[in-house]
Amino acid sequence: MTDRYQSLIQNPIAQFLVKNIGLPNPPELERWRGSGPLVDGTVLLGGTDDGIVLPQLPTTLKHAGIDTTTVRAEGRRYKGLVFDATGIDSTQGLVAIQQFFTPVLRQLAPSARIVVLGHLPDRTGTTGAAIAQRGLEGFVRSLGKEIGANGSTANLVYLTQESRDAVDATLQFLLSPKSTFVDGQVIRIGTTELTSVDGPTDPRKPLAGKVALVTGASRGLGAAMARTLHRDGASIIGLDVPPLQNDLAALMAELGGSSIIADITTEDAPATIADQLRDGVDVVVHNAGITRDKRLKNMKPENWDKVIDVSVGAPQRITDELLNRGLIRDGGRIIGISSIAGIAGNNGQTNYGTAKAGVIGFVQDLAPRLTDRRITVNAIAPGFIETDMVKTMPIGIREAGRRLSSLSQGGQPVDVAEAIAWYCHPGSGAITGNVVRVCGQGFLGA
Ligand code: NAD
Q1: Using CB atoms within 10 A of its CB, is residue 123 exposed (0-12), middle (13-18) or buried (19+)?
Q2: Does the interface ipTM go beyond 0.95?
Q3: Residue pair 105/118 in contact by the 8 Å Cβ criterion
Q4: CATH class of the structural domain 22-188
Q5: Quick one: which of 302, 336, 389, 444 is 20 to 30 A from 197 by CA?
Q6: CATH T-level topology, domain 211-438
Q7: pTM to 2 decimals?
């Protein structure tokens, strides 16, 4: 899947210009094709002696069919590197990361995945350890920028002594092509009393028996989410507005799902949706969103209100109704869709930036309130993803959105959908209150 610029630069003259005047040269990204090994190559494992995860890694990754080694061999290419840095407790100790990574970086295969495991800095107990562990974030974000040119990514997973056994599903996601557009991110496992996860499931259908509601499901990211959750075994209930009824019906027919036709901002929408989910729901993805871009000096009040209400006002009211009526099952997943505009802000998007930052406030407030029922609440913040929404952008902004990232291209809807499926996985039960960007490490924002 390439955009127009990617196709144009394939010819020899364009390649000459790319090399000599430094035009962006987007790598071809690998995506999960639904069969074959999760990782197409060997993963090199490393870590300090007192790392709390390294001892279990060869066994758990082998269970997932991932080939690993702890010994670097000259001349060999590695599809993944995992370094357990949880034991580093001083600034001097940080040299262990440099010693592991520097010699092996020339041996990265295309689209290789790097995962650093750290200890949640505020749970370390000493200042030296907190400094060292927080330092990992700068390391991973910088490394991601160095290795993006060949489609490789680097991410950091923080955990604790209690949550270290809850990392398998996350490692499988981050090491596989499913996370192709997740880069320079920090995932926190075990920030609440949720520290363990449900037992093993059918790896091909981890969501078998679950019911998932996706709003705005007829097209774009929502349609990809519906397809991906269905692929993983969930029964899908798609929701969209009346004008898109036929599109939604066609998709639900393809997936064997059912439709709810509603504008989520109407007063009766929460009750209508709850009535149709009377048998309960396991996954709620608040994906519906709109943009009405204008600089604040030209902003119409109705465009301010509508954008905020679709993205976060209505999701709050719908979630309240579903929780009050006990319709979200224990162990459920509530997922909000934020945006990099909600993290970094964007010119002409004060309404959208406010709405999408509000989504982060929503999930972070709700997450600790639902731990007793093992319901997790997280957000995904997409960067530039190729959908109808971005087709309306002025061309200059659109090209900048595509190229200004470590991977120098836009993502595909499936990239966001795979991240949603990872949040929904039974093995992600200790991940709550997280906001993960799916943005190819876009340079906009942190
Ligand atoms: P899209 O416009 O292609 O799809 C949005 C869907 O939401 C549509 O089906 C639409 O009918 C539905 N919707 C809108 N208002 C609704 C309402 N009141 N009630 C019910 N359904 C409603 O957009 P997309 O690009 O697929 O975006 C999906 C989500 O991802 C949105 O929340 C968007 O803000 C967010 N997002 C997208 C990008 C991107 O680059 N595409 C980046 C960041 C965030």
Answers
A1: middle
A2: yes
A3: no
A4: alpha beta
A5: 336
A6: Rossmann fold (3.40.50)
A7: 0.95
